[in-house]
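We close this part of the discussion by returning to an individual protein. Part of our work consisted of pairing the sequence of a single chain with a tokenised description of its backbone. What the numbers capture is local backbone geometry rather than side-chain detail. The amino acid sequence and the backbone structure tokens for this protein are reproduced below.
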Amino acid sequence: MYRTDLAAECISDEHIKNGNIHINKRGKIFDITETILCDDSFFESMGKRKGKYITLEGKNLGEFSGKNTEMIEELADELKNIIPDGDILFCGLGNRDITPDAIGPLTASKILATRHLKDELSKQDNFLKSLRRVSVFAGGVLGQTGIETAEIISALCRQIKPSAVVVADALACSDINRLGTSIQITDTGISPGSGVENSRKEISFHSLGIPVTAIGVPTVADMRNFSENIENMFVTTRNIDRLAERSSQLIASALNTVFHPMLTSEEINSLF
């Protein structure tokens, strides 16, 4: 098994035949595959816990623009079914200084943070009362801070007590055709860096005690797809700057729509 974060690449026909797995297909703009692992029997072999894994495929995310409202709406519809109601802590995982790892921080910069507005101004403004309380955090990686990201998120959860955590991160894939053309959503959380054998502490319901939704885009692929003699090397697309910026814009637009359904995209954009 090549290194990958994508559940779609871990599940074989044998798994489907013999395991407790349900697969549903749908989608208009994207080709959407929803894989439901009904128990934890595949955790050791695939590293995937019981839960939902939704893969949206078929679009070049580097070509996304804010005018592609159909893409935003379809992604938002999938996220609505996973993200619970209540206060949200959004965390952008990764290193903004390394472009293939910048999806999380770039997304965080585009998420509308409202917790402070709700706490300080909502008594004076009826509009602000309609907003969900959202906190946004992007704290870098262990090598920059000396602190595990999971430890920081756990401390934040104890302090601000969100109802759920949503994280965004760059992912690794084994099929080069998935680079920049796929999005994975899961309600099982994430182990940052697991796809490139740099796995950090898990960010999940098991570690935090509240629901965790993870969303990511594969930005690197294992070179061992091309030659087993090449180890510890990953490839990315030549337009990775554009891919990171546009895909983070798509993810943030969909999340803002889910977090604040009473706002139009124009209103959200005007608040930045």
